[in-house]
Amino acid sequence: MSNPGKLITSSSELDLDRPNIEDYLPSGSSIQEPHGKLRLRDLLDISPTLTEAAGAIVDDSFTRCFKSNPPEPWNWNIYLFPLWCCGVLFRYGILFPSRVLVLTIGWIIFLSSYIPVHFLLKGHDKLRKKLERSLVELICSFFVASWTGVVKYHGPRPSMRPKQVFVANHTSMIDFIILEQMTAFSVIMQKHPGWVGLLQSTILESLGCIWFNRSESKDREIVAKKLREHVQGADNNPLLIFPEGTCVNNHYTVMFKKGAFELGCTVCPIAIKYNKIFVDAFWNSRKQSFTMHLLQLMTSWAVVCDVWVRDIISVRAGLKKVPWDGYLKYSRPSPKHRERK
Amino acid sequence: MGNTSSMLTQYDIEEVQEHCSHTFSQQEIVSLYQRFCQLDRNGGGFISAEEFLSVPEFAVNPLSQRLLRMIDGLNFKEFVAFLSAFSPRATLQQKIEFIFKVYDSDGNGKVTFNDLLDVLHDLTGQFISEQQRKQVLIHVLEEAGYTKDSSLVLSDFVKILGNSGLKMEVEVPVD
């Protein structure tokens, strides 16, 4: 039997080729490991591969990352139900209007000072930048206040230094607002449509944020170039990247994109974990518009979250790691991936 | 079961149970229905190949293309029937029949040398040359008393796989 030996080499080549995925998948190998002698029955027995396939159809870890887990119903109880009704009345009748008011006031203050600063201080770049920074921090604080956000920070405040990037896990767009409230970061973000897009192109532009459009391939290089320039500049705002590239549901972190780690900078991780007692902060951008998401947050009791700076993200916030690329939410693996398997 | 109502009635559950010859419990069928609705993104009442491939763990499976030919456009009843071979309650015979069907791509009840070679190709990809695959296959076939030209039928599969301790079980998560 000359071939089983060859089989072994190729299967170990295969392992070298994709080491990390292998760790997570069930160990049913698609290539028969020749225990002594390869027999027809071993060759015909494709059950491990089939079991894997059927297992994926029944339940898979990837879909679970993006499922908004429905909250356990707790209010169907004769004692709790009236209380819950009062809660709803209170949240929609009193909390929500007052929050809208807070947010509106915030916007009025913000816009009335931002517009003059932006146009009148054209000559004084340094001063203008500084003022705009604090204004953005201000409006973000108003946003957080409008959900009664209770944010606990752990670790040192991010400082402005060249050659450093911050990376954070991504549950919702409000991650950005929460972090921005702490220090004005420059963020790299997908260009959004609607009013969010308008904000992006006008106000956040001044923070030195970088936009990209996934669907445009040329964009990649331009963004990469901009990124590189940005991290070199000493007085630019600290750069914040969400390397998962998409929102994940607060229970998992998916595979990080490597881009953030290739800039040759110090990488400072930030971990955000929302407390689900009051509201599920996961924004499923395919199902819900951002406006709806904000409304949902504004009609809830409070948004409670913890932010850790500089620590190993998943371990710290108690998120489970899965090897999937978050981008697969939008597309499916190419045949190339399958071939390699 | 062509409709896409979000709830299964007791009657529906029993009907599906009947259809998969009681390999799944009623709770498991309810769970499978939730999963079915989750996979059926456009709510058409059936799952297309595209929708199956949106599960990356499935899409990277070496046999996914072959399986897709069997499962493209399944409605819920067929979906459960397809998975029933993986139930711990399914008999060995049912499991072997399923494996046979995977090999027998043209469905003529015979598995030829080329059928075997195709599956082996799916499993090994470019890591082994076509020549090597053929050699291995001829070798093990002859060792088991067949030749390159013999085509295997279901009873051959039962004979070959019958006492090999086949383990092909998938647990349906029930909450």
UniProtKB/TrEMBL annotation, chain A:
<feature type="domain" description="Phospholipid/glycerol acyltransferase">
    <location>
        <begin position="164"/>
        <end position="275"/>
    </location>
</feature>
<dbReference type="GO" id="GO:0019432">
    <property type="term" value="P:triglyceride biosynthetic process"/>
</dbReference>
<dbReference type="GO" id="GO:0016020">
    <property type="term" value="C:membrane"/>
</dbReference>
<keyword id="KW-0012">Acyltransferase</keyword>
<keyword id="KW-0444">Lipid biosynthesis</keyword>
<feature type="transmembrane region" description="Helical">
    <location>
        <begin position="133"/>
        <end position="153"/>
    </location>
</feature>
<keyword id="KW-0443">Lipid metabolism</keyword>
<comment type="pathway">
    <text>Lipid metabolism.</text>
</comment>
<dbReference type="GO" id="GO:0005783">
    <property type="term" value="C:endoplasmic reticulum"/>
</dbReference>
<keyword id="KW-0812">Transmembrane</keyword>
<protein>
    <recommendedName>
        <fullName>Phospholipid/glycerol acyltransferase domain-containing protein</fullName>
    </recommendedName>
</protein>
<feature type="transmembrane region" description="Helical">
    <location>
        <begin position="76"/>
        <end position="94"/>
    </location>
</feature>
<keyword id="KW-1133">Transmembrane helix</keyword>
<dbReference type="InterPro" id="IPR045252">
    <property type="entry name" value="LPCAT1-like"/>
</dbReference>
<dbReference type="GO" id="GO:0004366">
    <property type="term" value="F:glycerol-3-phosphate O-acyltransferase activity"/>
</dbReference>
<dbReference type="GO" id="GO:0008654">
    <property type="term" value="P:phospholipid biosynthetic process"/>
</dbReference>
<keyword id="KW-0594">Phospholipid biosynthesis</keyword>
<dbReference type="Pfam" id="PF01553">
    <property type="entry name" value="Acyltransferase"/>
</dbReference>
<keyword id="KW-0472">Membrane</keyword>
<dbReference type="InterPro" id="IPR002123">
    <property type="entry name" value="Plipid/glycerol_acylTrfase"/>
</dbReference>
<keyword id="KW-0808">Transferase</keyword>
<keyword id="KW-1208">Phospholipid metabolism</keyword>
Automatic annotation (TrEMBL), chain B:
<dbReference type="InterPro" id="IPR011992">
    <property type="entry name" value="EF-hand-dom_pair"/>
</dbReference>
<keyword id="KW-0106">Calcium</keyword>
<protein>
    <recommendedName>
        <fullName>EF-hand domain-containing protein</fullName>
    </recommendedName>
</protein>
<dbReference type="Pfam" id="PF13202">
    <property type="entry name" value="EF-hand_5"/>
</dbReference>
<dbReference type="Pfam" id="PF13499">
    <property type="entry name" value="EF-hand_7"/>
</dbReference>
<dbReference type="InterPro" id="IPR018247">
    <property type="entry name" value="EF_Hand_1_Ca_BS"/>
</dbReference>
<feature type="domain" description="EF-hand">
    <location>
        <begin position="91"/>
        <end position="126"/>
    </location>
</feature>
<feature type="domain" description="EF-hand">
    <location>
        <begin position="27"/>
        <end position="62"/>
    </location>
</feature>
<dbReference type="InterPro" id="IPR002048">
    <property type="entry name" value="EF_hand_dom"/>
</dbReference>
